[in-house]
Amino acid sequence: MGTLFYGDAATPIGIEDRALAHLKVAIITKLRRGESFTLSWQHPDDQPRGRSTLWLHPNIPLRFVFEEPEPPDLSRTWIETLMRSANSTGGIQLVPEQLDTGPIATVDPLATEPGAENAAS
């Protein structure tokens, strides 16, 4: 479980390491541009029911702390989803990663071999 420290808030925000790594990319991208925005998430099951929102501003200190020493492989799709929400009026919505579980396209090996078009004749 990673931790997000924002400003002088007394309560750190616990976010799973993989989600925090993706969130970090989206947040840093916006802050580098000097853009302010909100970050919203639903409370996990072990916290009181509800949701929270932070106003993120480039001049307010921010620190990301990860439990795992090695960074995870990042999903371009998840980062793009977070960035699209960051650019909306609602700000970044921390949503779960959507894994592509659809079938993997296969290629007919005969169709890619030179001269395969004449093999059926």
Please provide a written account of the structure.
InterPro entries: DUF7882 (IPR057204). Residues 1-97 form the DUF7882 domain. It holds the Pfam family DUF7882. Helix 1 crosses helix 2. The protein has one domain (2-98). The chain is an alpha+beta fold and 121 residues long. The protein is globular. Strand 3 and strand 4 form a beta hairpin. The protein starts with a strand and ends with a helix. Helices cover 29% and strands 21% of the residues. It has helices at 17-32, 76-86, 109-112, 116-119; strands spanning 2-6, 13-15, 37-42, 51-56, 62-65, 92-93.
What's the quick description here?
With 121 residues, this protein is α+β, with helices and mostly antiparallel strands.
Could you outline the blueprint of secondary structure elements for this entry?
Layout: E1 2-6, E2 13-15, H1 17-32, E3 37-42, E4 51-56, E5 62-65, H2 76-86, E6 92-93, H3 109-112, H4 116-119
Parallel strand pairs: 3-6
Antiparallel strand pairs: 1-2, 1-5, 3-4
Helix pairs in contact: 1-2
Structure characteristics:
121 residues; alpha+beta; 3-stranded antiparallel sheet; 3-stranded mixed sheet; 6 strands; 29% helix; globular; DUF7882 domain-containing protein; DUF7882
Count of domain modules: 1
Regions with pLDDT < 50 over 5+ consecutive residues? none
Specify the overall morphology: globular
SSE string = EEHEEEHEHH
Radius of gyration: 21 Å
Strand content: 15-25%
| Helix amount | 25-40%
The largest sheet, given as strand count, sense and whether it forms a barrel, is: 3 strands, antiparallel
Question: What's the pLDDT, averaged over the residues?
Answer: 82
Structural class estimated from helices and strands: alpha+beta
Number of strands: 6
For the biggest β-sheet, the strand order reads 2-1-5
Number of helices: 4
Compute the separation of the termini in Å.
Answer: 61 Å
Organism: Agromyces flavus
Pfam family, one: DUF7882
InterPro entries: DUF7882 (IPR057204)
Domain DUF7882: 1-97
